[in-house]
Amino acid sequence: MFENKRKILDCVTRTSTKSISVAGRHHDAFTGRLAVLVDSESASASEVFARVVQLERRAFVLGDRTSGMVMEANGFQHQAFVD
Predict the structure, then answer these.
(1) What is the rounded (10 degree) CA torsion for 60, 72, 26, 30?
(2) Residues 6 or more apart from 62 whose CB is under 8 A from it?
(3) 41 CB-near residues (< 8 Å, 6+ apart)
(4) Is residue 81 assigned to a domain?
(5) According to the model, what pLDDT value does residue 31 have?
(6) How many domains does the chain have?
(7) pTM (two decimals)
(8) 25 part of a folded domain
(9) What is the DSSP letter of 27?
(10) Residue 2, Cβ neighbours under 10 Å: how many?
């Protein structure tokens, strides 16, 4: 979606803040304008995408207020042995 590297978000934890960026596609990137449709069920990555393209002045966002569920999850594997 972007020609050059773009900062997407800041991941804030109790002890630090880390910027998350995406690499650009240079000449393969779509450079046109976008219309992004969201509704009350839109969450997480769709909210981040809509906001980033809106801030970059590449799109206008249509629809309802989104659910506000932008969160990061950590997966932990656990294996239980039963005798």
Answers:
(1) -30
(2) 35, 36, 37, 38
(3) 67
(4) no
(5) 85
(6) 1
(7) 0.70
(8) yes
(9) G
(10) 18
